[in-house]
Design goal:
Length: 351
């Protein structure tokens, strides 16, 4: 029995050490006070802060520790959503995916700003990345994401080492809703050591840090989640009469879970609804899409167009409108004489 207890303590000590290196569990995780003698029975061990639960050696945080995307299948795959107090990677494999990666990051920022009113988001990047990928369109921030100009701050650093220093200092601040660090390629300075520091600062402040990797290949980092984002073709807009031919619908993203400590790899097609500021999953089969819209109509049977408030039925359509030429107006093609011109067209004279 004594040897079993010693072995159990050794195992938990190793797990804590691995958790500190990988950033999976908070450093305040404590070893269990009491353990079940039967090793075959699953035992739940809760820390004294009731923040982290360990079940058979797997970490699981409380639901409010995640940022749900609103897509049920994706949130289930990510065990609740993206972690709020952690470093998360968002990859774009090619340079042409820079717009999709930035749009997806702005969508996440919009979801975060709903929960943290009054706090800004800091976007950090090097001069190279802003010159290559550009800045977000200021007028579209509010129209598409509901982000006011004062809620999004930018920091342009001349070198990568300066951008990393700004990101580390900003990640520890609780006065920011989130920190976005955008980097191009696979620089040597961005390795396990740098990402561990960013992840530890995010855990300490309880704020998310999003690492945007443009035209980058996957490499080992301390981020628990890595998402690969690319643009997806937009479908035509849906109207009451059906799809509107020749129209462009909502912006869409192809999202692939490249790395996750709690989820298996998977691929999703998401659409961003700029009116509701929320994600929707696109159904690949049109038949399934019709079934889904039928379910939505069953849940919300309210008619699309409400009745008139002043009467039972809407007003009848108006009759034909005919245009008559004004009395005394010149015929088509005739030019007025100089004395018939309007007074405001003649040059003014000094009195």
């Amino acid at each position: 029995m004594a040897m079993t207890a010693v072995a159990r303590e050794t195992v938990f000590a190793l797990r804590r050490q691995i958790a500190k290196i990988e950033g999976t569990l908070p450093e305040r995780l404590q070893a269990p006070v009491a353990a079940t003698p039967d090793a075959g029975v699953s035992t739940n061990v809760t820390s004294n802060t009731d923040v982290t639960i360990v079940r058979r050696g797997i970490a699981a945080a409380l639901p409010d520790a995640f940022l749900p995307t609103g897509v049920e299948r994706l949130d289930t795959a990510l065990s609740g959503g993206l972690p709020k107090a952690a470093l998360s990677e968002i990859h774009g494999i090619e340079t042409r995916d820079a717009g999709a990666v930035a749009g997806f990051a702005l969508s996440l920022a919009s979801l975060i700003l709903k929960q943290t009113q009054g706090l800004p988001v800091l976007w950090i990047g090097t001069s190279e990345i802003f010159r290559e990928a550009g800045f977000p369109y200021a007028r579209g921030l509010h129209a598409s994401f509901g982000i006011e100009p004062e809620q999004l701050l930018f920091s342009e650093a001349p070198k990568l080492v300066d951008a990393l220093w700004v990101a580390e200092e900003a990640a520890r601040m609780t006065a920011l809703a989130a920190v976005i660090l955008e980097i191009r390629g696979n620089p040597q300075r961005l390795g396990l050591t740098a990402t561990r520091r960013l992840h530890a600062r995010a855990q300490s402040a309880g704020r998310p840090v999003f690492l945007l990797r443009q035209a980058a290949e996957p490499e080992p980092t301390a981020a628990p989640v890595r998402l690969i984002v690319a643009s997806a073709p937009s479908v035509p807009r849906h109207t009451i009469a059906g799809p509107l031919a020749g129209s462009i619908g909502r912006p869409a993203f192809t999202l692939t879970i490249g790395k996750s400590r709690t989820a298996l790899p998977g691929q999703f097609t998401l659409e961003w609804n700029p009116d509701e500021r929320a994600f929707d999953e696109r159904w690949g089969d049109e038949r399934r899409g019709e079934e889904r819209r039928g379910e939505e109509r069953a849940k919300n049977p309210v008619p699309v167009v409400s009745l008139s408030g002043s009467g039972k039925d809407p007003a009848a359509a108006s009759g034909a409108v005919l245009a008559f030429p004004a009395v005394g107006s010149p015929a088509a093609g005739d030019q007025p004489s100089p004395w018939e011109r309007a007074a405001h067209l003649s040059p003014r004279r000094a009195s």
